[in-house]
Every structure is written in C-alpha cells, then in structure tokens.
Write a structure and sequence with these properties.
Radius of gyration of chain B: 33 Å
Strand content of chain A: under 5%
Helix content of chain A: over 70%
Oligomer: heterotrimer
Structural class of chain A: mainly alpha
Radius of gyration of chain A: 23 Å
Number of helices of chain B: 30
Distance between the termini of chain A: 51 Å
Largest interface: A-C, 127 and 106 residues
Order of helices and strands of chain A: HHHHHHHHHHH
Distance between the termini of chain B: 80 Å
Strand order of the largest sheet of chain B: 1-2
Strand content of chain B: under 5%
Largest sheet of chain B: 2 strands, antiparallel
Chains: A mainly alpha, B mainly alpha, C mainly alpha
Shape of chain A: flat
Helix content of chain B: 55-70%
Number of strands of chain A: 0
Structural class of chain B: mainly alpha
C-alpha cells in the first residue's frame, strides 16, 4: 500500500508525526528528558515541513532562514513547555526575538524593531511583573500537569497538522496568486533600489501610508489603548467585590 | 354653518369637552377644588340642554312657519367622511326589483359622520339633556365625598355625549358606535363602586346582556346593508358618480341640480321597502338590539341588577339615556317596521307582555329601587306597545310616554336616592317607614312621581299612558274593521278607523290574517290595562311602606337622618313640576298653535303627535294615513283611571295601616291553603273531630270499620299524590314566582350560562391541552437540545478553546474538500 | 530565493507558531501562560501578514501588524489586570479552578492522576519579591485593598 505514497506525501506524514510527538513530549507534564527529546523532534519536524517549500538550489538566504525558523519554533515550543512561568515568559521573549529576526530577514525592518521594542521590551516585562505579583513562588501543581490527556492529544495533533492543512495541502497543486505589487517591490525586500541606487526609505513610506490612508484606524487604536489603560486601572482598583479571602469561597464546591 | 347645524354640534360637543376637561384637570391639577368636576358638568349640560331647547324651537319654527307645505322637515349635517370602500359589494341584478332599487355593479360603502336634526331627534335631545342636567345637579350633593367624584362626572358626561350622538346620528353605523358607547358607559357607571363585588357583577351582567342585543343589532345592520346597499338614514345627492360629493339634506336646495339621488335606508319610496322574510328578519334583529338596550323580555334581566350603581346613575340610565335608546331606534326605523306588520305585532306583544311581567314582579319586591327598576321595565313595555301599534298616534304616544316617563321616573329615582341618602344607604322598605315627617320634600315629590306613574289625572303619566292604550285600542279596531268584523265601539272612532283602513299599511299581513292580528292587539290591550292596575298598586305599596306607618329608621342612618340638602331637593321639585304638568301641556296647548297648517293637517291627536309627525320617517304615507286614528278616548281614559284609583285604593287599604290582609294575600298566593290541605297532621286532627269519630264508632258497630279505614287510606293516598304538586307548587306559587322574579336569572343560569361555561371549559381544555401543548412541545425542543449542549458547558476555559479550534479545523476541512 | 518560496517558507513558520500557541492554549493551565499562548498565536498571524505584505508589495499588511501590536498591548493590559483580580479571588492562577462557572448540574472536572514532583526540578529559580519580607498580619491579609 505504500507504493502509492509519493515522497512528498511521506515527508508530510513524517513531519506531522514527528511534530506531534515532539509537542506531546514538550507539553506538560514535562521533565528535562522529555523537553530535550521533544526539542529534537520539533526541530526535525520543522525541517520536514520546511522541506516542502525548498527550491532545488539552496542558497545562503535559505540556510539563514532555516536557522532563524528553527530557533523561533524551538523557542516557541519551549515557551509553551516550561513549567515555570518565568521561564515560559523568557522563552517567549526569545520567540519574539526569532520572529523579529524573521521580519528583518523578510525586509520589514520597522516591524522587526517594533516587535522587539514593544513586545519584548514592554509586554513581556509586564508579564514578568504579573508573574512576580501573582506567583512569586514560581512553582505550582497546575504548571506541571495538563487538565486532560485526550485534550492534550487532540491539541497536539491539531497543532501538528495545522501547517499541513493551512499551507502545504492548499499549495501543493495550485500555484500562488500572482503578486499585486501595489508599490515598488524593492521597498519591501530591503534591497537597494535600482532607480535611486540607495536603500528606499521604508519607515518613511510606511509612516506616510499609516498617517494618510489609515489615520482613522490610528485614532481608533489610540482610543482603544486609552480605554484599555483606564479599564485596567479601574479593574485593579474596583474589581474586588468582596473583602473576605477569595480562596475560601470559590473553592468550596471543588471536589478534592 | 347656520343655526341648526351649530346647535346640533354644540349639543354633543359640550359634554365631550367636559369629559376631556375633567379627565385632564380633575385627577391631579385641580384635585383640591372639590366641586370642580361637578361645576364643569353642570355648566356643560346646561349649555347642552339650552341648545337642545333652542333646537327644539328651531325645528318647531321650521314646521309651522317656514315650510308649511312640506310634509316633513329634516336637516343633515355631514361633518366628515369617516370611511369609504369603493367596491365594497357586487350586487347581482335581480329581475323582480324595480328601477329604484335594482342597482347593479359595485356598491360603495361610505360612512359619513352625519348628524341630523328633525322632530324626533330634537324631541329626544330635549328629553335627554334636560333630565341629565337635573340629575347632574342632584349628583353634586349625592356624590359629595365619594372617592371617585371626578370619575363619576367624567363617565356621566361621556354617557350624555354618547346618548346625544346616538339620537342625532344619521347613519346606522354611527348610531351603533354610540349604541356601544352607551353600553360601555353604563358598564362603567353601574360598576362605579367596583370594590363591591355585586356592583362589578352587575356591570358585567348589564354589559353582557346588552351584548346579546347588540349582536342582533349588528346582524340587522349587515342585513340592511346587503339589502339596501347603504346605511344612511337620509338620502344623499351624488353630483358625480366617481366623486361622491354628498350634500347635506335640506328641504330648500336639495337636491342640487344635475345630481343623482341615492335614497337612504329610511328615506325611500314606501313601496321599495323589503317585505317578507328579509324584512321581518331585519325588523326582529333590530328589535332584539332594542330589547337588550331597553330591557325588554327576554333581555330585561340586567336592569334590576343595575341598581347597584349610584342612584343618580339609575335615574340617568332608566329615565333619560340608555333605556330610551331602544325605543328611539324602533321609532326611527318605523318605515322598516311598517312594511312588515307582523314585526310591529311582535313589538307590541313583547311590550305588553313585558309590561305585565315586570309589574307582577314589582308587586312583591321589598327593595325600593328594585320596585322602581321593574316599573321602568314595565313602562318601557308600554312604550314598545305604543310603537308596535304602528299608527302615528301610537308611535307618538310611545315617544310621549318616553318623555313623561323620563321626568317622573327620574323624579322617583332621585327621591329614592334622597331616601337612601337619609337612611344611610339602606333601601329595604321593611327596615324603614313613616318617613313623611322626616323627609317632607322627598315625600311630596315622590307622591307627585307616584301619581304620575300610576296615571292619575291630570298628571303626565295619565296622558301618555292613555295615548298608548287608545292607539292600541284603535289599532285593534282598524284591523277588526279590515277583516270585516267591526267591534262595537263609538261610531266616530269607527269612522276614523274605516278611513284609515283604506290607506292601511303598504305592509300587508303575510303570515297572519288581520282578524288574528286584531285579536292579538286586543290581548295586548288587556294585558296593558291589567299592568296599569298593578302599576298603581305596587307604586303606592312602595310609597305607603316608605312614607307612612310609624316612624322607623334603620341603625345605619344614625341619629342624623334628615332631609337632603337644597342642591338635591331643587332638582326634585323641578322634576316634580315637570312630571305634573308636562302631560297636560303637551296634550293640549300645542294644538292651538298650529291652526295655520295645511288643510287636513290639524288632527285630534295631541301635540306630540303633531310635532313628531314632521319626522321624515313618520311622515310616510302608511303612517300619515293613520294621523286621524289616534285620539283621546274618554272611555279608555276612564277605565284606566278607575283601575289606577282601584290599585291605589287597594294599596292604601293594605299598607296604610298595619293590616293582616296583606299577610293573608301573601299566604294565599303562596298556596299556604294548599299546603294545609295536604298536611297529614290535618288528617289526624280530622279523625279527632267528633263527627268523624262518631261515624267511625257507628261503622265499627256495624262491622264496617274496614270501610272507614279504606276511606282513610284513600284520603291519605290522595294527600300523598298531592304532595308532589305541592313540592312544585311551593316553588311556582304566584307569590314565589313574583318574589323570585319568575326565576329568569336561574333559567338563564341553567340554560345559557352553565352550558356556555361548559363549552368554554371544553374549549379551554382543548386550547391549553392541544393547541398550547403543541406550542409548548415546539418550545421544549430547544430545551432538550440545550440539555444536550449543557454537557459541553463544563467550565474549563481550555475546553472551549479546543472546541473552537476543532470547529476551525472542520471549516477548513470542508473548505478544502468541497471548496473551489 | 524566489518570492513564492519565500512566502511558502514564511507561511509554514507562521502556521507552526500558530499551532504551537494553540496547543499551549489548550493544554496549559496557568492563566499567564495561556495569555502567552495567545500572544504566540498573534505572532504567527503577524508573521504571515508581513510575508504577504512583501509578496504583494503592499503596506496594508504591515500596518495591520502594527494594529495587532496595539491591540495586543491593550489586551495584555486588561487581561493581566483581570488575571490579577482572578488571582485575588482564587489565590491561584489555575484556570481549571474557575470551572465553578460551569452550567448548573454538570459534574466538576477533577484531576485524577497528580504526578509527584520530579527530582531534577527541585531547584527551581524564582523571582524574589523586591524589598524586605513583610510581616504577615492576619487582619492586613484579610483587608488588603491593593495588590
């Protein structure tokens, strides 16, 4: 029965299986051994997936991408795998670094910078603050286990086949739609423009578009941020409804 | 707008404005001004009453001086077009119809808000507004201190507004609207003290019983529209067929040139009225409506219960407004009834029967207001009897009696209200007595009203009641003359009857021979005469029981039983004067002012006949021909007067002093003797009689004791056999029948209410079990599905995320498998 | 590398990030880590958008990413405030604890196999709270108004 399977199909199946196995090992309950084995399997699975999108001639750019992508995916997996929330946040910061580097690789310098500055610089720090406030102990039972084995299996399988379903399968027969090229493509690749002989002012062009076509959206986003600021303040200030220790009332109905 | 139109609008507009004014200002804004609603009401009704009298004078003026040649006068004011449907009905041409009615093609349904002014309307308006004004003045004092003071006057005005609109509407549909409005107002006023369960039940009963009659009216109206193609009373001029411009009917410039006349229902050529079964059905259905509103047998049961309302309301409903609506309707529809004489006979028969029935019931009632209520039913029966006589004099006498009755019955009710006021709302005549010293004004005015009701010369009731009796008598004679069996009467009456007989009615007797009809009218006449006797008796029974004998005051009255305040006494006096002289004035005075009438228009009839004779519906030839028929009959007047005096005498003999004869009569009519007859104790006592004992001993000596014993057993068995009728007879003895109102309420309870309730229960069970059950079943399906889905709501957030992701996956899968 | 291959590569990585975030979202029980997972999924989406932006040479994709960043910041602020409140109520960051909000009549979810702590995980690092160790005061613990 296997003779009907093409090489690509077998590769895809291998990617799914390896990826799923790696994720299964990584997600809680986790241990050092499982994390190491899972990391290896995830990296292998990533490679198997990326093999589907590889040209015959592998250039340096491609190799760089492999390295960056492998790091990003591995960091993401470890971020989800770490039982300690502090480590999870730190690995998430690493993921953000990987994503930012992928953005740089794509030529989107401004967004790469924004990702690092805002995400890694602000949001992750906020996460860490909250961890410090809420979980100073850094260890808890619920970090070590999942809530349901079958749900974990389902989720892992789902995560493993998602690249196949979303990308590989739709694109294996069909060709991609032709690019629209609303602007000059040089501005997006980060390459030197053949017209002017210099790097195109990418951030300036983005800002021009941002503040002209999208100024209403910009205002809305600003309003949203203001509302979130006020909302977060109000929640923290007035959110507490009862003065009795909260743990005593919520957990009453729990069956031990 | 000319004078008549202005007056016609002012008369209903004043009470309507008062309604709005009171409803807006009285509950909150001017609550501190206690008498505000009363004064608004009195002012509005005064305006209305003065306008009515002015209108009355205008119409008289039109009759006498402006258009002496015209046989009738009417004026229609079309305020606005209410509703219109262009192709409401498609009539199939019928070959037997003549040209005037054989319209083919689409028939327009158009209803105007049209008011009319003619003699009948003016007459009714004067009656209604005058009495209502006086009752309103009385109410100021009577209702003082009531929690619903403003509510009372608001309803009161609404009532008067509805009634004035009812009598001035020139359209069956508009009339029906206010017919219903009157019913609504009666419901509101009878149930005015709605905290009292009896009052609420009485209001409901009045409303529902009226609804039966209204259903008949509605059916009759539909039948009229199907038959005649319009609902207007008046003819209207259609200038152009497509645009239905209608011109107000005025004798001067009607119709406008170049227009086509569309006859109304009640203004057609006499021969174009539908006879036969359709005509009879229309008449009887309309009469059913009138029966409901005017409390005639078999729909009379609501009226006595309506006494639960405030007493001025009783006076208003029973004297001036509501109950006269049925009389007015039948009088207004005279052309329809003339076409079908059998319908008139039914009207007369029901009227006479109701008159006697209600009088019999009134004999044994102990509730003062109930006596008056039954006398109202009885007097309304008289009115219908007069209307049923069919001649101009008969119809006019019915209206005449309506007018006089409005005065003396309002007077009697208000006087009864005054008694109640003094007695602390006790109305049972057995609990008070000898009030003539305590309530002198009430006593004298009640006496005037009672004399008028009894029909004693020369008070108003005498004239109007005799006009009715005379017209019925004449009618019987005319019919007897037609059938060739002339009854023996005075020659001049005979002559008039013969003259009238030549014209007599376009409606020919279809189902009955005139001889039979004549017999029926004679029976009606004798029933009415008997009722006249009973009327005098029960009226004075109530009068003597209330005002004579030794002074007795119930405990509820307290120590301050006193005469009513002047604001209540003055209307009583005014009404007493009216009740005393109205008949005399109307019977005689007007006759001399119309000498300049065209030749042949002066009649021996009374003033009301002459005045109402100008009503278009009464000026039709069939009625006009009988103008000479009704006159004052000395013999009839003498008979009824003697009977009335006899009834009064009997009442005085029985009730003026404490006498045992009344008890004896009651026992007699209770069949007490019969009970004695079948009492087995009497049999034992019989045996102890010396004569019987001697017979027994002699028979024993002769060895025939067994014979005596056999005879004894025979007597005993007869007694036992008679016991069965005793059981029945105890319940149906005349006294019990009268006291228990002939068991009509019980009869309706068992024949109508209970079966209907059973059907309603059944339908409710079907509705709740099957119809609602299906709906509930459908409604339960989501609950079942939801129960299934509840298991998914397990509260773990990650599970929801997972299901979302799975759903996303399914969507993607479907998209990839079957998408493009 | 040709543009179609670039976009394919980027999309694959984006889908993997998204999937990993999804798996973490479903399996993890710590509120904070769950929010990290959500942010992870957003990162996948952002990456895909940047890839498409380059492919079509269109700024809209990158601008949308900027908006995603803004929304993520707002969301993180509000969500973390909420997490703090939840923690104050339940004295735990366990997401399953809030299953008390489930539909009435449903049986509760109970952890069946609670594993022991692994030996090598004993020495966990943790963030030391700043300042000196406060003296635990019962009344203060009961009535503390801010955290």
């Amino acid at each position: 029965m296997f003779q009907h399977l093409s090489f690509g199909g077998m590769l895809l199946a291998a990617a799914i299986v390896v990826m799923a196995a790696g994720l299964y090992l990584l997600l809680p309950p986790s241990s050092l051994i499982r994390r190491r084995a899972g990391s290896v399997l995830v990296v292998l699975g990533t490679g198997a997936y990326l093999a589907h999108a590889t040209e015959a001639a592998v250039d340096a750019e491609q190799i760089l991408f492999w390295l960056l992508a492998g790091f990003t995916v591995l960091a993401a997996c470890l971020s989800m795998a770490m039982p300690n929330a502090v480590y999870a946040a730190l690995w998430f910061a690493a993921t953000l670094g990987g994503v930012a580097s992928l953005m740089f690789w794509l030529g989107a310098q401004f967004l790469g910078a924004v990702t690092i500055i805002i995400y890694a610089g602000a949001i992750v720090v906020m996460f860490l603050f909250v961890i410090m406030l809420a979980q100073p102990g850094g260890r808890a039972l619920y970090d070590r286990i999942s809530w349901s084995g079958s749900a974990k299996v389902t989720a892992v399988v789902l995560a493993a086949i998602l690249p196949a379903v979303l990308v590989v399968w739709p694109l294996q027969d069909a060709t991609l739609p032709a690019p629209v090229h609303a602007e000059k493509p040089e501005a997006f690749t980060g390459a030197v423009s053949p017209d002017s002989g210099s790097y195109p002012p990418q951030t300036a062009m983005l800002g021009r578009d941002f503040y002209s076509r999208y100024w209403v959206h910009l205002e809305l986003a600003g309003t949203l941020l203001l509302a979130a600021l006020v909302g977060a303040t109000v929640i923290v200030l007035y959110g507490r409804t009862s003065r009795t220790p909260a743990s005593s009332q919520i957990s009453k109905r729990r069956v031990p | 707008m000319d004078r008549i139109a202005t007056l016609l609008v002012i008369i209903p507009a004043a009470p309507l404005l008062a309604v709005l004014l009171i409803a807006v200002t009285a509950p909150r804004l001017l609550r501190s001004v206690k008498l505000w609603p009363a004064w608004v009401t009195v002012a509005a009704l005064l305006v209305s009453a003065v306008a009515s009298w002015l209108l009355f004078q205008e119409i008289r003026f039109q009759h006498g001086y402006v258009k002496p040649q015209s046989p009738y006068y009417e004026r229609v004011v079309v305020l606005w077009r209410w509703a219109e449907i262009a192709d409401a009905m498609w009539r199939v041409p019928q070959p037997q119809q003549d040209a005037s009615t054989a319209e083919t093609g689409a028939i327009r349904f158009a209803v105007d808000v049209a008011l009319r002014a003619d003699a009948l309307t003016a007459f009714m308006l004067v009656t209604v507004t005058s009495v209502a004004f006086l009752v309103a003045v009385f109410s100021i004092g009577y209702m003082a201190g009531d929690r619903g003071y403003w509510r009372y006057f608001c309803y009161f005005n609404l009532f008067v507004f509805s009634m004035t609109m009812l009598v001035s509407a020139s359209n069956f549909l508009l009339l029906f609207v206010f017919w219903e409005a009157v019913g609504l107002c009666s419901y509101l006023l009878i149930g005015f003290w709605y905290e009292k369960p009896e009052a609420a039940a009485a209001g409901k009963k009045a409303f529902l019983v009226n609804r039966v009659g209204d259903f008949g009216f509605l059916l009759g109206m539909m039948l009229i529209w199907i038959t005649y193609g319009t609902l207007d009373f008046h003819a209207s001029a259609v200038v152009h067929p497509s645009q239905s411009l209608r011109q107000a009917v005025d004798s001067d410039n009607f119709p406008p040139p170049g227009s086509k006349i569309e006859p109304g229902v009640l203004s057609r050529a006499p021969e174009s009225y539908v006879k036969g079964l359709t005509g009879l059905a229309i008449c009887l259905l309309l009469f059913l409506g009138a029966c409901g509103k005017s409390a005639q047998f078999p729909l009379h049961i609501w009226l006595p219960d309506a006494m639960e309302g405030p007493t001025p309301v009783s006076a208003l409903i029973h004297a001036a407004t509501m109950v006269t609506a049925g009389v007015y309707l039948v009088a207004r529809c005279t052309p329809l009834f003339v076409a079908v004489p059998e319908a008139q006979l039914v009207v007369a028969g029901i009227g006479a029967f109701t008159a006697l029935l209600a009088a019999l019931i009134a004999l044994t009632q102990f509730d003062l207001k109930r006596v008056l209520a039954y006398s109202t039913i009885s007097q309304l029966g008289y009115m219908f009897l007069g209307l049923g006589a069919g001649s101009l004099a008969g119809i006019a006498s019915g209206m005449f009696h309506l007018f006089t009755h409005a005065f003396f019955k309002a007077l009697l009710f208000l006087a009864a209200g005054s008694v109640m006021h003094a007695m602390g709302n006790v109305i049972d005549m057995r609990r008070f007595g000898g009030l003539r010293r305590l309530l002198p004004w009430t006593h004298w005015t009640f006496l005037v009203g009672a004399l008028a009701l009894a029909g004693v010369f020369p008070l108003s009731g005498f004239w109007s009641k005799d006009a009715i009796l005379g017209s019925v008598h004449d009618r019987a004679h005319e019919l007897g003359h037609v059938s060739g069996t002339p009854p023996a009467t005075q020659p001049e009456t005979n002559h008039a009857a013969a003259e009238a007989a030549q014209h007599i009615s376009h409606g020919t007797w279809t189902w009955l021979s005139p001889a039979v009809a004549s017999r029926c009218y004679q029976i009606c006449y004798y029933l009415a005469v008997a009722a006249a006797f009973l009327t005098a008796f029960y009226t004075f029974r109530a009068f003597f029981m209330t005002f004579y004998g030794e002074l007795r005051v119930p405990a509820e009255a307290g120590h301050h039983a006193h005469e009513s305040p002047p604001v209540m006494v003055v209307p009583l006096v005014v009404l007493a004067v009216g009740a005393a002289v109205a008949g005399l004035l109307l019977d005689r005075s007007y006759r001399h002012t119309v000498e300049h009438l065209p030749e042949g228009r002066v009649s021996t009839a009374n003033a009301v006949t002459d005045f109402l004779g100008y009503t278009p519906q009464l000026a039709i030839p069939a009625v006009e021909a009988t103008r000479h028929a009704g006159g004052f009959h000395l013999d009839i007047a003498a008979v009824s007067l003697l009977l009335a005096l006899a009834g009064m005498g009997l009442a005085a003999y029985l009730y003026l002093e404490e006498r045992t004869e009344a008890e004896f009569l009651a026992a007699l009519f209770r069949f007490e003797w019969y009970r004695k007859l079948v009492d087995s104790q009497n049999l034992i006592r019989l045996r102890r009689r010396p004569l019987v004992a001697r017979i027994e001993s002699v028979a024993g000596r002769l060895g025939l004791r067994w014979l005596v014993r056999l005879a004894g057993y025979a007597v005993l068995s007869v007694v036992w056999l008679l016991t069965v009728p005793l059981m029945i007879g105890y319940f149906v003895s005349p006294y019990r029948l009268s006291a228990d109102r002939f068991y009509f309420d019980e009869l309706y309870t068992w024949l109508v209410v209970r079966p209907l309730r059973g059907v309603a229960r059944l339908l409710a069970a079907v509705d709740m079990g099957i119809v609602d059950g299906l709906v509930n079943l459908i409604g339960r399906i989501p609950v079942w599905v939801g129960d299934l889905m509840r298991a998914l709501q397990m509260g773990v957030l990650s599970f929801y995320a997972l299901s979302m992701a799975l759903g996303l996956l399914i969507i993607l899968w479907v998209r990839l498998m079957w998408g493009t | 590398m040709s543009e179609p291959h670039i976009i394919k590569n980027v999309l694959l990585v984006a889908a993997m990030l998204f999937g990993i975030g999804l798996a973490g979202l479903v399996t993890r029980r710590n509120w904070i880590v769950v929010f990290l997972a959500v942010e992870m999924m957003l990162q996948g989406v952002s990456l895909a958008l940047v890839g498409w932006s380059r492919y079509h040479a269109e700024w809209g994709g990158q601008i949308l990413v900027l908006f995603i960043v803004a929304v993520a910041a707002a969301e993180a602020a509000v969500a973390l405030a909420l997490v703090l409140m939840l923690f104050q109520h339940a004295a735990s960051l366990d997401l399953v604890r809030w299953q008390d909000l489930r539909e009435e009549g449903q049986p509760p979810w109970v952890d069946r196999h609670v594993p022991d702590e692994y030996h090598e995980e004993r020495q966990w690092p943790h963030l030391v709270p700043a300042g000196r160790q406060p003296q635990p005061d019962e009344d203060e613990l009961l009535h503390r108004s801010h955290v």
